[in-house]
Structures are given as structure tokens and as C-alpha cells.
Amino acid sequence: MTPTTTWYLVLAAALFTIGAVGLMVRRNPLVMFMCVELMLNAVNLTFVSFARALDDIGGQVVVLFVMVVAAAEVVIGLAILVSVLRNRPGATADDIAMLKG
Amino acid sequence: MELVVFVLAAIIVLGGALGVVLSGNPVHSALSLVGTLFGVAVLFVAQDAQFLAAVQVIVYAGAIVVLFLFVIMLLGVDEAENLRVDPIGGQRPGAIVAGAATLGLLLAFLVARGGSVTGERSVSGAPDGTTANITEVARVLFTDYVFAFEATAILLTIAVVGAVVLARRPRRDHDLPAANTAESSS
Questions:
Q1: CA torsion, ordered B23, A38, A73, B63, to nearest 10 deg
Q2: pLDDT (tens digit, 9 = 90+) per residue, B23-55?
Q3: DSSP category for residue B171
């Protein structure tokens, strides 16, 4: 018995759901970023599964682009967090809702 | 054998994901994230995407998680957070209901699909099965998707410049930014 594409898709759906719930529940902005990474990884897993199921290398190339965009997003997001949390240590996502540094 | 690999990797992936969400200390969350990323890399190898698995380990586990840990240590926010309190009333039940609905809809779609995969082919076509995975990815990346590849180069450059500008400690005397750059370059 070998795992089929559906197994991988179910696993990716579970991973995406955990990331989404974490993003909604957690209040530490760093952990919220990690939950976004979980969701991006779930989507990457889906892309690779479909790339194998459809026998199409394009899915893997798209995953590479997703990784690049995720890296850029993390760099910018963490820089914003550093500049915000330097002024107010211990700020949660609710404290920075006004977007005034 | 493939089943054993899948089950072990799935346990690592889901356990790491739950660890990210449920641990109060951000350092523990980051380390759980490493487990999830390694598990996803194993699943990439199991699906003949060796190049992406290497990129996953090097870029995600090697660079992004280290960046997370660096920021946690730099800001000193590594004290544990009390997860028992729910500051906004009804947020957690609402989030869990939304998550259950998401998972339910995805699984219902997967069941209704019945295991068959349909879809349009991309412009890149199928791997021929004889050349290495990295050769296939490189051929497509540098021919069909070369403009997107160049755009990611520009994106990364903008991200680096933006990170430096955002994380720079502002000067006390409120100089103009142009004066700062001229001073630092001299």
C-alpha cells in the first residue's frame, strides 16, 4: 500500500488548517509569522503533489517562487517587527493595530 | 516502505505544527517549526522533488528559522506567554469553528474528487524521467519562467534594501534620510 496523491493533499489540508487556526488564535506577532510559514508550506506540499500527479515539472518551479516570496515576506515582516518592538517591548498584535510605529 | 516514510513524516509535520501553535515560548515554537520544515522536506523527496527538498532545508530551516531565532533573541521576547487566558471573548471558539469549517470543506472536496487528478498542463511539460530533477527544474526555470525568475531577483533586492531601511535605528537629531546615506557612504 503506497500513499496516493489524496493522502498528501489531506496532510496538506490538515497542516494548512493548523496554521490558519494558529494565526487566528495566537497574539505574539512572531508566532503569527511562523503560522503563516506553516500555511505556505502546506500549499507548497500541494503543489509538489499535483506536480507528481500531473507529471508536470511546472509545479516544482512554482514552489521555488513561493519560497522566494516567503523569504522576502519574512525579512520585511521581521524588520517591521524589530522597529515596532524596539519602541514597545512585549507588544502583541492588538497593541499595534493602529500602525503608528 | 514509502508508506512508512509518509506516516513518519506526517507525524513529524503535524506534531511540529501543533508545537508551533500550542507552545507558549516563541523559541519552542521556532524549534517546532524546524521539525515541520524537515518533515515537509522528507515528503518532497518522497515525491521526486529532490532539489526543492534541498532548498527547503537550506533556505527555510537554515535561514528563515535562524532569522526568527535571531529576532527573538535580539528583542528579548523569549519569555513564555500564558496561553490559558483568552483576551478577546469568543475569539478561540470562533477560530476553532473557522478552522474546522476550512478542514471540513477541504476534506469534503478531496472525498468528492474521488482520487482522480484533473487539470490543465502548464507550459513546461512533463519531465522525461531520465535527467535529474535539478536539471529539469533548471531547464524550465531559465526558459519558460525566466521573466518571473528575474522578477524574483528584483524582489529580493528590494526586500534586502527595505529590511535595512526598516530595521535601522533612527538617528536622534532627525536628519533627512538623504543626509544619512551620504554620510554613511563617505
A1: 80
A2: 888 899 999 999 999 999 999 999 988 999 999
A3: P
Residue with cell 517591548: A89
Contact A43, B140 (CB under 8 A): no
C-alpha grid cell, residue B25: 515560548
- Residue B130 grid cell: 531520465
Picking from A49, A50, A45, A40, the residue whose alpha carbon sits closest to that of residue A20 is A40
Give me the residue label for grid cell 524596539.
A86
Whole-number Å distance between alpha carbons of B124 and B33:
32
Query: What span, in angstroms and rounded, lies between the C-alpha atoms of B87 and B81?
Result: 12
Contact B81 A74 (CB under 8 A): no
Residue A38: count other Cβ atoms within 10 Å of its Cβ. 26
What is the DSSP-derived secondary structure letter of residue B172?
A: T
Angle at the Cα of B64 from the Cα atoms of B72 and B36, rounded to 5 degrees:
95
Cβ–Cβ contact A91 with B under 8 A: no
Amino acid at site B148: A
pLDDT per position as a tens digit, A24-74: 888 888 899 999 999 999 999 999 998 888 888 888 999 999 999 999 999
Which of A24, A47, A78 is the best substitution to test chain B (most B C-beta atoms within 10 A)? A78
SS3 A1: coil
**Size of chain A, expressed as the number of residues it contains:** 101
Chain B contact for A39 (CB, 8 A cutoff):
no
Q: Could B47 and A7 be called an inter-chain contact, meaning their C-beta atoms sit closer than 8 Å?
A: no
